[in-house]
Amino acid sequence: MPHPAPPDWPHRDLARPVQAAGHDWWVLDTGAPDDTRPVILLLHGAGGSGHSFRHLIPEFPDYRLIVPDLPGQGLTRTRPAARFGLEPMTRDIAALCAELDLRPDWIIGHSAGAAIALHLAESMPLKGVIGINAALGKFDGAAGVLFPLLARALAALPLVPQAVSALWGNPATVNRLLTSTGSDIEPAGRAQYLALVRRSAHVTGTLGMMAAWQLDGLLSRLPRLAVPVLLMVAEDDGTVPARISKDAGTRMPKAELAVLHDGGHLVHEVNAPVVAARIRAFLTQTA
What we know:
The chain has helices at residues 86-99, 112-121, 143-156, 160-168, 171-180, 187-197, 200-212, 216-221, 242-250, 267-270, 272-286, and strands at 15-20, 23-29, 39-43, 64-68, 106-110, 128-132, 229-234, 255-260. By secondary structure, it is α/β, with parallel strands linked by helices. The protein has eleven helices and eight strands.
């Protein structure tokens, strides 16, 4: 079977396919079966893949990192009629951890991945959760109704993902999308996002996730979340305003906020050493 990752894909040699919960997962694993290092699970946001942690991964050599592509996104192939909402995705990631015979000590989640991390923390005995520009708010106003409905309608049309890939799968459009996040991504990183947009299966998975995304239940339970949480926010985030994490942090009993002045929504890709240093301090504090 040909290797599904392009030859220049970040950390390609550390990744492998894993079958669990009806998905063919693409999982990057920096450890081995007999590895005794603490385990960190890293979850990317909607529309991305595990490659978004490419610069953070080398910053944690003393931890075993598990980095899956979410169902239907990146290089993870999903079953027909898969459900992409918060609840089923959380269950499926828990099933993936069980298949790998791993119990994460911490979870790092970027954007929507932070919501999945917090939901996992409700049932997993974690030492802590780190959210990077966490998407923990609802769409404002009419967008809260129209965006999910539009995504649901688009995901239901068989030729739409191919059309989106063809329309958006060019360097100029992807560069505009990345620039709108407030992050200045290096050329190789931009090329990797372009490769994702050109995969119609990835577009299908992203639309499906957007269509089914509901956070009301999780947000209502934040005051009962007992796990320590670090919320890292970039003040110039062009995708998820910093006020979202600031507000969510006030509702969690063990949350702390780390404010970064620049870097945008993809700050962990733009300024990995600074982000990693703050995360390492939190890991030491909660170990």
